[in-house]
Amino acid sequence: MIIEIDRLTTEDVDDAWRLSSQVGWNQTSDDWQRLLKLFPTTCFAGRLNGELVATSTLATYGDVGWIGMVLVDEAHRRRGYGSKLFERALDAGHDRSLEVIGLDATDAGREVYRQYGFETVVGIDRWAGSLRRLEADEIEGHDADHGHVEPIETVEPIANFDRTHVGTDRRVLLEHVIAADDAFALRVNRNGRTRGYAVARSGRRQQQVGPIVAVDGIDVLVLLSGVAKRVDGPVIVDALRGERTESLFRRFGLDVQRRLHRMTEGNPRSVLDGDAVVAAAGFEWG
């Protein structure tokens, strides 16, 4: 049966959420609404006789595109529908002449995406568990001169900082997430200058912590300590792989739940992963 591909709409949110829940992903219906709000022309639906059976999305930040939410209903798999939805999102990126198109892939997905010319740039891991709360005297090297953690209500204090360290403008995403009723954001303020920030929001099963962007390890420690004081229950963090993150998140009581691969089309391109980037907004956001 030939699948029809058109735009995903707000009327599809319940069915789209059913697909992501079916595979155990952490997105809420609000996450789907957010994708549709921010990127209405690049969220795609695959339909059979009018029924939503597959999805894909393309988030865009300037010249950067990020493919995510490639899902197929379990009753309709192994018929090539996932490939067609992925290709539709990829074509949308090509139509917009994006400089870089990226995605996060599982081991199995990596082999598929290599056939489309994607190559691995860096590993990205999903850490999960309940954040251990560090006491102030457990954060070596931190003092009043280093800066203090404070909540922020708008994107303004961190927008320029994020653009500088991430390499593209994610203001529209950060603004939308920070304004959500089920989210909060913290920043490290040193004499009026931002040294780092972290955002946390609700998920279907666990709270999602990210993005986290910070100048140095002490800033990350104080941010995660601040997050730990404000969340109850389990969290997940999608963190770029490295020695710093391995020791950091284990110190906070988290363990690796999934290991994925950050990939870009063509030659590997560093994107959304500057030296100060600790954790992504999520696999679907880049």
TrEMBL record:
Pfam families: Acetyltransf_1, Acetyltransf_18. GO terms for molecular function: acyltransferase activity, transferring groups other than amino-acyl groups. The keyword Hydrolase does not apply. Keywords: Transferase. PROSITE patterns: GNAT (PS51186). The keyword Transmembrane helix does not apply. Residues 3-140 form the N-acetyltransferase domain. This is Acetyltransferase (GNAT) family protein.
